[in-house]
Predict the 3D structure of the following.
Amino acid sequence: MPITVVGSIAYDAVKTPFGERERMLGGAAVHFALAASFFEEVRVVGPVGEDFGEAELDVMRRRGVDVSDVERIEGGKTFFWRGEYGWDLNSRETLDTQLGVFEGFQPKLSERSRESEVLFLANILPDLQLEVREQLPDARFVALDSMNLWIDIARDRLVKAIESVDCLILNDAELRQLTGKPNLVSAAREILGWKSSTAADSTTDGGTAGGDEGASATSRRGPSVIVAKQGEYGAALVTRESFFALPAYPMENVIDPTGAGDTFAGGFVGYIAAHPHEELTDELLRRAMAHGTALASFNVEEFGTERVERLTGEEITARVRELSEITRFSSAPAKLRA
Ligand code: AMP
């Protein structure tokens, strides 16, 4: 199933203990699109400024990404983000965020982008995520990512956007911040109870993970899958009935984690999109988690999009296989003492 994605298309300035880049291609939609392009056709929606280069668009085109809904705004400036990582790469400070052309942007999706059966609302203003969601009311699977900035300044709109999707993919700490719950599983379970109340939202067929067969279309609204991204510790999956977690692929040389979360989302959502005839079961979600994890591990090997740009399908398959080896164990019981 083709995928439409809206989210930041950016220039990033990044400093890590291993080097820095003053102006590299970035943005949540870009990292997502490159990763998801290994599984399905991806259509990117969003604005760029006059300063955005053809070479950057070519990075996406080379992976077969459809960039015809990337709108160049005359006289505008491309979204810009500056971040710096701590010595162990676990902490990151945002030093600057300039929305540029995203301020006041009104998305007009082409017929083609509106036809996609899978929609990813990558990190960007919640209002923009909602506007795009409304233009794809019949998408079969809709996922959303966001971040602390939007929880801080646009929480109500973000909650509304989350209520309109099937799957929420968010950093562990942001899930806790969003719900005010210190425990990850309770935070996820709270969001699994959120429902959209508007009539327009009830026209969409949501995912059914969690086994709510028999529920009416309206009562199924709201997320049924929550993915908590945990950085170098991996990612956890929570549905109404189940829990699953995978560690990150163990890497000795992490150079730049920027975009790892979006790359994970690209692998996760891409894998689901590539299996249109399968129910959204825990089995499918677990395989999607493994593919997201594998993709993200490549992203951190080099700065920005550098590594994923020359990634191959064989490399992804091999890493998923290794991941399955690393996480395999037998539950053979020991003789336990009373
Ligand atoms: P990640 O490392 O997966 O959290 O994503 C990093 C990417 O998100 C960078 O390429 C940035 O351009 C982009 N980004 C940073 N802040 C924001 C924001 N507030 N809204 C949308 N995208 C952002």
